[in-house]
Amino acid sequence: MYFIGITGGVGAGKTELLAYIRKHYLCEIYLADEVAHLVKAKGTACYERLTGLLGEGILRADKEIDRGAMAERIFGDEVLLEQVNAIIHPAVREYLLERLERARRDPSVELFFVEAALLIEAGYKELADELWYVHAGEEIRRERLAGSRGYSPEKIADIMASQLSEEQFREHCDFVIDNSGRLEDSFRQIDRKLEAFSWRD
User: Fold this and answer.
1) What torsion, rounded to 10 degrees, do the Cα atoms 125, 27, 15, 88 define?
2) Fewer CB atoms < 10 Å away: N or C end of the chain?
3) Helix 32-39 and helix 78-104: axis angle, to 10°?
4) Which is it for the CA torsion 180, 201, 96, 195, positive or negative?
């Protein structure tokens, strides 16, 4: 089984490419943002530590953590953000490593993908067989984010400023998918890269 990490700047189109891979290859795919939501569910050790740190003001009526309220609580507080990341990131890593070991024992899984914006910063380069970078030009990404998510130019600029540069992504990744144009062109790049693996119609 082959472990591939996928990263790229906001608006690069990682979700669409992963949907294509999920449909056509014998794989398991995990999105770090979704895993982060799972590991802080009520009853987990992560939940207890986060509510202990941030207080019950971050909880919804059903006592689950409200992502928006938590984001507001830590907004602009670098120390608090570091403390929260120190709780969530190891829990996400542990969850993914457990799933990875399970997938290695499953003969029906040929490829194991993890998508994360902070894949490089979180040290997945040492764990994965390869890291892939999904690239799209900055103006294209801005248009996508404004159109599909309704983000303001200020919000887009803030998010982009917090992420790695084009040079840093390319420096750390083994393979680049240019997703600036038509999705079909990106799909062909993926198929050429994965030609050694089973194709599922």
Assistant:
1) -50
2) C
3) 100
4) negative
Helix H or strand E encompassing 133:
strand 130-135
pTM recorded for the entire structure: 0.90
What's the rounded mean pLDDT across residues 130-139? 96
Task: For the beta carbon of residue 48, count every other beta carbon within 10 angstroms.
Answer: 13
60 band by pLDDT with thresholds 50, 70 and 90: very high
> Is there a contact between 167 and 156 (Cβ–Cβ < 8 Å)?
no
Burial label, 26 (beta-carbon count in 10 A; 0-12, 13-18, 19+) = middle
* Contact in structure between 1 and 111 (CB atoms under 8 Å): yes
pLDDT digits (tens, 9 = 90+) for 159-196: 999 899 999 999 999 999 999 999 999 999 999 999 99
Mean pLDDT of the chain: 94
Category of 123 on φ-ψ map: left (φ > 0), alpha (ψ -120 to 50) or beta: left
Task: Report CA 62 to chain centroid distance, whole Å.
Answer: 27
Per-residue pLDDT, 75: 83
Taking the C-alpha atoms of residue 189 and residue 182, their distance in angstroms, rounded to an integer, is 11
What gap in Å lies between CA 92 and CA 37, rounded to an integer?
A: 9
Please provide residue 167's backbone torsions phi and psi, each rounded to the nearest 5 degrees.
Answer: -65, -40
